[in-house]
Each structure stands twice: as C-alpha cells, then as structure tokens.
Hints:
Elements: E1 7-12, H1 18-28, E2 32-34, E3 38-39, E4 54-55, H2 58-66, E5 70-76, E6 79-84, H3 85-93, E7 97-101, H4 104-113, E8 118-123, H5 127-136, H6 142-155, E9 164-167, H7 171-185, H8 193-210
Parallel strand pairs: 1-7, 1-8, 2-7, 3-4, 8-9
Antiparallel strand pairs: 3-6, 5-6
Helix pairs in contact: 1-7
Bound molecules: guanosine-5'-monophosphate.
Guanosine-5'-monophosphate (5GP) binds next to β5, β6 and α4.
Amino acid sequence: MNNNGILVVISGFSGAGKGTLVRKLMEKYDNYALSISMTTRDAREGEEDGVHYFFVNHKKFEQTIANDGLLEYASYCGNYYGTPREYVEKQIAAGKDVILEIEVQGALQIKKKFPNTLLLFVTPPSAKELAQRLRDRHTETDEQIAGRLSRATEEVEWISKYDFLVINDDIERSVDRLNDIIVAAHNVPIRQQEMINEIKKDLEVMTKGEL
Ligand code: 5GP
C-alpha cells in the first residue's frame, strides 16, 4: 500500500465557505497539512501574517518567483497569490495530504505539474446564496463584492476540469464529505501505481514459476 500523501487543491467561488470548510477539516482530521500562501493583498481585520497568509509587497513576491520559491502563482482581483514550494514538498514527503486552497488558474498550473493532484471545487447551492454570503461577511466593499461575483462568472467555465464538486449546503456535513472524497481518492489506480506495478511484477514471477 502506498502511504504517500497526496496534493489536494480546494478551489471555489469567493464566499463559498471554503475557508471555514478547510479550517474545520484541519481541526477534525489529523492527516492534513495546510499550505499557507503568499499574497500581496492587505490583511483583513483578524488575519495574521504567517497564519492566514504571508503578507508581502510586490518586490518580495517577485523575488520569490525569481528564486523558484513558488509552486504556482496567479493574479486575482488585482493582487498576487502564490504557493510556497518548500513546505508543500516537505509535508508530502512526510506522508501528509497537503491542502492548497487556491483559485482556478493556480489549480490548473498545479495539475499540469503534478498530474496526480486531486482537484475539488466548493460551491454554495445557488448564486443567490453566494451573493448573500459575500454580503454577510462584511469584509469587502460593494465594489469588491461585484468584482468577486464577476470573477465567479469566469470561474464557472473551469469547474468541469475538477474531479469533484463539493456542495456546501451544511458546513459539518460538507467537512465529512470532503474527507470521504480525499480518503477514497487515495485508491484511484493512478495514485497506487507503485503497488500495482509490484503486483504485476510478482504475478509475472509466479506465473513463470508455475510453467
Ligand atoms: P482571498 O483574498 O479571499 O483570501 O483569496 C482570493 C482567492 O485567492 C481565493 O479564491 C483563494 O483560494 C485564492 N488563493 C489563495 N491563496 C492562493 C495561492 O497561493 N495561489 C492561488 N493561485 N490562489 C490563491
């Protein structure tokens, strides 16, 4: 059995509740490591540097790109966001399933580089609900909310590239669904190729021995 960790990308519309979902997933289950992204956007109230994001200026972000320090990066609503390479590589090697909570452009870059990545897309049950959740969290101006909804309109086109949709109607149930999908995804044959090759080799030896 292959016990390597897998890379799991969780994307979703802004306001879909993926932040809460991921936080609860981390609290409830042991085997996950959450990647902390680097961003040039300003910290929101209550957000801490090194906990929610590494908040940096454009210069530092560009230096990190130049040093090949990011696995992927993208521009989203006027700011850069990227995944620091080192942490992800270490945690995967340690057997953890690493969660990347990133938007669609980054997700597709990761899938291209690491084809075994599991791509999950979180959505509320309806667009109406999405807009309401964005308004209710009071962290963005009306203009920013409009920008994020417009971005969601573009993101819809990319959903079919994902492996699973997670419909976030109830947070507790969605956390368990998310975990169930990830556990099951370990046993998709593409992720167990080493074990399959081993069985194949042994079968060949056995059948030759019998002849
Ligand atoms: P927010 O500003 O709401 O924290 O994040 C905006 C969007 O950027 C979300 O869709 C979030 O998933 C995405 N994001 C956060 N970190 C990264 C990252 O490292 N890379 C990419 N490509 N997207 C990210």
